[in-house]
Amino acid sequence: MEIGVKSDQYFMIQAMKEAQKAFEADEVPVGAIITCNNQIIARGYNYIQHLNDVTAHAEMQAFTSAANHIGGKYLRECTLYVTLEPCVMCAGASYWTQISRIVVAARDYKNGYSVMNKQVLHPKTVIEFGLLEDESKKILKDFFKRKRK
């Protein structure tokens, strides 16, 4: 039985499931997955509070897992799906992985890498914004609303 090509929406839904795990763990709900050849090879979600590690962002978790999966540090034929625009640290890490493509649900106008107005992604990396943006914003708003109670 041949399995069809999965859509960007399918993969972003998987990243949203990772964000839900972060939400349930009382972490800022950001989720990420990395695909290669139409298969999920890595998953990650924010785990900063539990690890007491400021670098434990969803993307960083996924980069480490993907590198271990493929047995190398370069993710040239891979796509990162992430529910919130990467921060400068995660964008910088994506540069070093040479990841081919990044698909982002929601922009982060406060802490996202794009606020720097500098090229921090690898020049060959393609980035796309807005897939399931409303869903990503909703889980973030729900999380912070819960925190303010």
Account of the protein in words:
The protein has 149 residues and is of the alpha/beta class. It has five helices and five strands. The chain has a five-stranded mixed β-sheet. Helix 1 (8-24) runs parallel beside helix 5 (133-148). The radius of gyration is 15 Å and the shape is globular.
Could you give the topology of this structure?
Layout: H1 8-24, E1 31-36, E2 39-45, H2 48-51, H3 58-70, E3 78-84, H4 88-97, E4 101-106, E5 126-129, H5 133-148
Parallel strand pairs: 3-4, 4-5
Antiparallel strand pairs: 1-2, 1-3
Which descriptors apply to this entry?
five-stranded mixed β-sheet, 5 helices, 149 residues, 5 strands, single chain, alpha/beta, globular
Tell me what portion of residues adopts beta-strand conformation. Answer: 15-25%
> How much helix, percentage-wise, in residues?
40-55%
- Which ranges are low-confidence, i.e. pLDDT below 50, for 5 or more consecutive residues? none
The biggest sheet, with number of strands, parallel, antiparallel or mixed sense and barrel status, is: 5 strands, mixed
Query: What is the helix tally?
Result: 5
Distance separating the two termini = 50 Å
Shape: globular
Order of strands in the sheet with most strands: 2-1-3-4-5
Q: Could you tell me the mean pLDDT?
A: 95
CA-based gyration radius: 15 Å
Instruction: Please identify the structural class as seen in this structure.
Output: alpha/beta
H and E string: HEEHHEHEEH
Strand segment count: 5
